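Budget justification, computational time. The allocation requested in the original proposal was used primarily to generate structure tokens for proteins on the priority list. As evidence of use, we reproduce two of the resulting records. The first is shown immediately below.
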Amino acid sequence: LDLAWLETVRINLPAVLRRAASLGTRRTVKQQWQAAWLLKAVTCIDLTTLSGDDTETNVARLCLKAARPIRPDLLEAMDMTEAGLTTGAVCVYPNRVKECVQLLKKYKAENIPVAAVATGFPSGQYSLDTRLQEIRMAVEAGAREIDIVINRQLALEHKWQELYDEVV
């Protein structure tokens, strides 16, 4: 961690705000390319369910949608039926990872990674040992991505080296 590098970063806030305000007024993708861009956008989406009342049925529906995100008739109309279009990932709590992996296999979509929101989501206010154990359990269950919650207390107190060490 090179904090000296971070300390040299300067931001021109008025320029950033002007640029952000202009993004919505700029020209959009030309009409003939819109469908291609939208299909590409689908591949960048992580379908997520982080409800406290998730059931196997909810998760199965999510996995099926990830495996087949676009209606077959629309794919056929765009001559994209053989493209194998899927979403980028399915994101769930660690206790749902194993069933997601099994469901994606059932839907012949093993290429879709399962991401787990681990490390004490949403608060992150667990001991480091507990957070690491949660990551281990999610990986053992088949998670290929881990979305972590950083220790916000360390960030709020500007303890960047400690935060870096935890993430590492």
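The second record produced under the same allocation is shown here.
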Amino acid sequence: DTASKLDGSAVYGIDVKLPGMLHGALAQCPTLGGKLASFDASAAEAMPGVKKVVGTPNGVVVVADHYWQARKALDAVKISWDAGPNAALSTDAVRAKLRSAAKREGRPARSEGDVAAAMKGAAKVVRATYELPMLAHATLEPQCCTADVRPDGADIHAPTQTQTIAQATAAAAAGLKPEQVNIHTTLLGGGFGRRLEVDFIPAAVAASKAVGQPVKVIW
């Protein structure tokens, strides 16, 4: 596939184009485990190119003729989130929990000698703590999915690393049987295991089902 990647003909998830395709921009709850409480899309729905604003369990998708129209209209949607069980979670809280856990006795996987005695009799003990910040498991290409949902089936074009799980997830979101869903795997703009998750698929399915046309949703 080197030649197609060099001449630009390679198709990644973000490159998919289908006849009659619309574009979706997505807002999601900023905390893991949170969900959508309510939204007011009246201002967004009046903006140029906007076709529909769709609520999902944990987000809002604005569907429009072009992506930038959808993205700008998303800023006009008034959203209220239910932050859920992780509302108070912070880096400091995680750090404190890890430090507390480190003081407890661990489970020995292997024992050689007497570490405690050696520490007590050591002429010099060096202690150091190393910390790294929380990192996003981020792909180079934004998470994206193009869904074409119809009453009798669906076609999902996505840079997924788990086709079977993607098929089952799309089917559940569309209200279809897994065998009614076709998964078209595009090239991955960086996977790194992040695309083992299929959380970028349901919103595209919901958007396409709501408007009755193919929709590409980009995070």
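A brief technical remark on that second record: The two ends are 26 Å apart (CA to CA).
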